[in-house]
Amino acid sequence: MIYCVEDDASIREIELYTLRSTGFEALGFESGDKLLAALKGERPDLILLDIMLPGMDGVELLKRMKAVPDFADIPVIMATAKGAEYDKIQSLDLGADDYLVKPFGMMEMVSRVKAVLRRCCPGQKREILAAGGLLVDLAEHTVTADGGRIALTFKEFELLRLFLSAPGVAFTRENLLSSVWDSDYSGETRTVDMHIRTLRQKLGVYGAMIETVRNVGYRWKAAS
């Protein structure tokens, strides 16, 4: 469980959506008071904490958590404003495990979260999907083909993850839109076709494993 403390509702919802889309459970809070109340009920695996909060700011909140034995070892990633060098240093000195500088990309956020969790929970099992020499590391959010790294966008990675999770299953374009894109996405299904085309190109010889199912959509070719 990841707790996101961010007073800007639009940013908070994007963070939560991204974390949930990449396999995490996540809850959002708009203030330090609400976070402290939630901590009395459930202990999260990590807290993503914005410094600029109404009332009690993130630095003060971090101090309070580190002073309580039950909360002191919860990993914390601070979100600092660009150029706020003092806030960054102060947060690290107070025990923060890492920091993000606003504005930051959602995939950078996911990578930082996973890196901190690996350091704090070294025994955590790695989740890897494989198809021959193609390996998808769900924890690292990386893809390699015969030992070579392949750089995918977030949507391409999610498409590949979905295919490898259910080889042989045919997904309609509507299925893929609802699973990989926001359920409220109103774009055309050819968006899926464009992403599949690019994904096939990036996967090289493994791209042929993504089969077009006529009048249906796409599937990952099941091993024979």
Describe this structure in words.
The protein has helices at residues 9-21, 32-39, 58-66, 85-93, 106-120, 154-165, 173-180, 190-203; strands at residues 2-5, 26-29, 46-50, 76-81, 98-102, 128-131, 134-137, 142-145, 148-150, 171-172, 210-213, 217-220. It has two domains: 2-120, 3-Layer(aba) Sandwich (Rossmann fold); 129-220, Arc Repressor Mutant, subunit A (Orthogonal Bundle), CATH 1.10.10.10. The protein is built from eight helices and twelve strands. α1 (9-21) packs across α5. The mean pLDDT is 86. The longest helix has 15 residues, at 106-120. A five-stranded parallel β-sheet has the order 2-1-3-4-5, with helices on both faces. The chain is elongated and about 60 Å long. The two termini are 38 Å apart. The chain is α/β, with parallel strands linked by helices and 224 residues long.
